C-alpha cells in the first residue's frame, strides 16, 4: 500500500502535472532536453541549487535525507 504524501510532496506532484501540461500545450520542451537539472528544478518548482544538492548527496553515497532538526529547547 502506498505511503501517504506530505504537503510538500503533494505540491511537487501538482507542480509536475502543471509543468508537463505546459510542455504538452506548447508542443515541446520548455527548456532544452540537455539542461536536465534546470528542467528538474523548473518542473518541481524548486531552485537549481536544491537539485544540485540532492544530486551531490546521491553521488557521494549519502542517500537522500532531510536536514536535522535542532533540539527542542523544552526537552533540553
Account of the 3D structure:
By secondary structure, the chain is an all-alpha fold. The model has no long low-confidence stretch (mean pLDDT 90). It is built from 3 helices and no strands. The radius of gyration is 16 Å and the shape is extended. Helix 2 packs across helix 3 (48-59). The longest helix has 20 residues, at 7-26.
Secondary structure elements and pairings:
Blueprint: H1 7-26, H2 36-44, H3 48-59
Q: List the total number of helices.
A: 3
Uncertain segments: none
Mean pLDDT: 90
Strand content: under 5%
Helix content: 40-55%
Structural class: mainly alpha
Task: Note the run of SSEs as H and E.
Answer: HHH
What's a quick, concise take on this entry?
The chain has 76 residues and is mainly alpha-helical.
List the main descriptive attributes of the protein structure presented here.
about 80 residues; 3 helices; about 0% strand
Amino acid at each position: 500500500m502506498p505511503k501517504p504524501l506530505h504537503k510538500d510532496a503533494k505540491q511537487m506532484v501538482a507542480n509536475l502535472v502543471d509543468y508537463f501540461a505546459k510542455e504538452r500545450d506548447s508542443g515541446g520542451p520548455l527548456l532544452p532536453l540537455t539542461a536536465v537539472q534546470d528542467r528538474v528544478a523548473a518542473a518541481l518548482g524548486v531552485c537549481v541549487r536544491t537539485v544540485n544538492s540532492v544530486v551531490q548527496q546521491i553521488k557521494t553515497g549519502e542517500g537522500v535525507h532531510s536536514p536535522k532538526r535542532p533540539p527542542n529547547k523544552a526537552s533540553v
